[in-house]
Amino acid sequence: MSVSKNSKNSRDITARISDLQKKIQDDMYVNSAIDRIALIVSRQIVENSARSMTGHSADYVG
């Protein structure tokens, strides 16, 4: 029974990798992902700066 479960997981992983390989070929997808990452990092920086200005210790890891 565990063999079929591993086989299913392998297929799921292979399908996921295939899907991601297609997506990274799309410039719009990659640019959108980069923009989203930049937005998240920028918000973290602003939040951490605000905490340090108000006397709270900055938590850079989240």
Structure characteristics:
elongated, 2 helices, mainly alpha, single chain, 62 residues
Describe this structure in words.
The protein has helices spanning 2-23, 27-53. 79% of the residues lie in helices and 0% in strands. The protein is built from two helices and no strands. With 62 residues, it is mostly helical. The longest helix has 27 residues, at 27-53. The model has no long low-confidence stretch (mean pLDDT 85).
Question: What layout of secondary structure does this protein have?
Answer:
Elements: H1 2-23, H2 27-53
Short characterization:
It is built from two helices and no strands.
Q: Which parts are unreliable, with pLDDT below 50 for 5 consecutive residues or more?
A: none
Q: What coarse outline follows from CA principal-axis ratios?
A: elongated
Portion in strands: under 5%
Instruction: Supply the helix-strand structural class.
Output: mainly alpha
